[in-house]
Structure formats: structure tokens, C-alpha cells
Amino acid sequence: METKTVHKWLWVWDFDKEEDWLNEMAQEGWALESVGFCTYTFRRCEPGEYIIRLEMRSKDQDYEDFLRETGAELIGRVFLWIYCRRKAEYGPFDLFSDIDSKIAHLQRICRVLWIAGLANLLIGLANSLNPGFWPSWINLLCATLLMYGLGRIQGKKEALEKERRLHE
Amino acid sequence: MRDTPALTEATYYILLSLVTPQHGYGIMQQTEALSLGRVRLAAGTLYGALSALCDKGWIRPLSAEDAGRRKEYCLTDKGMEILKNEVARLRELADNGEAILGKENGDGDQNRT
């Protein structure tokens, strides 16, 4: 079966764009088959055969079994992100069907970015006071990016919270 | 009279589906069938709702021996009480709506001045 591998860098705050891109690929007849750090491997499929979804969630065997039970296949896991797909013939496929669970998902992403950002900031500061082998600017750059990402996800979360208030 | 707020549609249909023990995918299918496709529960949302409802003690997982391979859930006595209260509340809403709209439609000419 024909496969192709694409290397692509995507920012964590653009995870919805990443999902859109993977679904466009599936529409064009390329189903995501496996996933690694910045590496996506696709296999030829019928155009529109699969719907792809991704989600940040810490490792939870129960949840993975639950997903399989609903007809979804787990494609892979990169850090805390899980990638899954389901055949489109089973009907629309989403991981979140209400605004509260979408907000909770963004909240989980915020928490991880916040912890990782803070850790990089502290390590960067400690290294700049006590210069060693590892240059501190790398950690400070990471901290800046993670905090930027946090702001972007926070913005998405606030937009949903505003929407929830309107519909209550 | 009531100590719980109105249930969301998702919660209502989950409880209703669990009057007889059911696994996760069964809840999704039953909810969709009962609401004629209007209410769809996604896996992540349902998974979160099930654990929240277990924490509240409205539903409980069946022990592994009863359930087999898939994890099944059923309503607790408390969950059944909540569900019955909700049905009564919804009936009141619907009855009031029909009473007032029915009157308007039925003898609307007399009511409008």
C-alpha cells in the first residue's frame, strides 16, 4: 500500500489547524497512519474514508479502551497528544460534543503549558545566575514561546466561555 | 423543593439510558436514537460526564464479573430519584407551556383585545 511521510512543524496552539490539515489530507485520500515528533505518515485511502481527531490527555488506558469501543482507532501518541481516527461511514466523529468539555480540554492544555513554561523560566534563570554548559537563553526562549502559547489557548478558552454565557 | 438544578440534555439522556445497564457506546447510540439524532454525545464528553456522575453517586460501574469485557454502568437509587424529579420538572414546564399556548391558540380571539 502506498504511503508517504511528511515532516511538519506545528505549534501547539494551532492544534485545531493541525486537525483541519489532517482531515484535508484524509479528504484527498491520505489517511494518517502513524505519527511521531514532527513526522506524519499517511497511507492511501478512499477520499473521505476517515475523520481524524486529536486531543491532549494524559495516558489513560480506560479512555483509550473507551475510544476503541466507540469504533475509533488510536493512531498514536506524541507527548500528551493522542491522535485517533474513525471511518466516516459510522457518522460524524467528534471527541467533544458540548462547550463545557471543550473548555475543560483547553484548560488541560493551559495547565501543561503553564507548568512547562514556568519550569523553563526557573531553569533559565538559575542557569543565568550560575552559567554552566547549557546556555540559559534556550530555556528562556522556550519559556517565552510556551507563555505565548498559553496566551493563545487562553484566548480560545475565553471565546468559548463568552459563547457559553450567551447561550445559557 | 429541589436541591439539584435542571439537568443538561446530555446528563438527562445518559441517566435515561442507564435505567438498564449499558456500556459507553450503548449510551451514545441510545441517546442518538431517543432524540432522533438531535443529541449526539462525543466520546471525550461522555467519558468526562460518566466519571462526574460516578463521583456524584448518581450512577455506578458494574463490577467486572457482571460487565464482561466492556465497562458497563447503571443508575443508583439516588440517580433514579434525580431522574424522576427531572421528568416531573420537565412535565411541569411542558404542561404550563401547552396550557398557555393552547389557550392562546384555542380561544385567542377572546383573549386579544
Give a written overview of the molecule.
The complex is a heterodimer of chains A (168) and B (113). Chain A is of the alpha+beta class. Chain A has 2 domains: 88 residues, no CATH class; 69 residues. In chain A, 51% of the residues lie in helices and 23% in strands. Chain A contains 4 helices and 6 strands; from the N terminus they run E-H-E-E-E-H-E-E-H-H. A 3-stranded antiparallel β-sheet of chain A has the order 1-3-2. Chain A is globular. The termini of chain A are far apart. Chain B is mainly α. In chain B, strands 1-3-2 form a 3-stranded antiparallel β-sheet. Chain B is elongated, with a radius of gyration of 18 Å. The model of chain B has no long low-confidence stretch (mean pLDDT 86). At the A-B interface, helix 2 and helix 3 of A face helix 2 and helix 3 of B.
Widest sheet, order of strands of chain A:
1-3-2
Globular, elongated, flat, extended or rod-shaped: what is the shape of chain A? Answer: globular
**Main pleated sheet of chain A:** 3 strands, antiparallel
Termini gap of chain B: 38 Å
- The CATH superfamily of chain B bears the name Winged helix-like DNA-binding domain superfamily/Winged helix DNA-binding domain
Report low-confidence residues of chain A grouped into runs of 5 or more. none
Total number of distinct structural domains of chain B: 1
Q: And the CATH topology of chain B? A: Arc Repressor Mutant, subunit A
Silhouette of chain B: elongated
Distinct helical segment count of chain B = 6
Summarize the structure.
The complex is a heterodimer of chains A (168) and B (113). By secondary structure, chain A is α+β, with helices and mostly antiparallel strands.
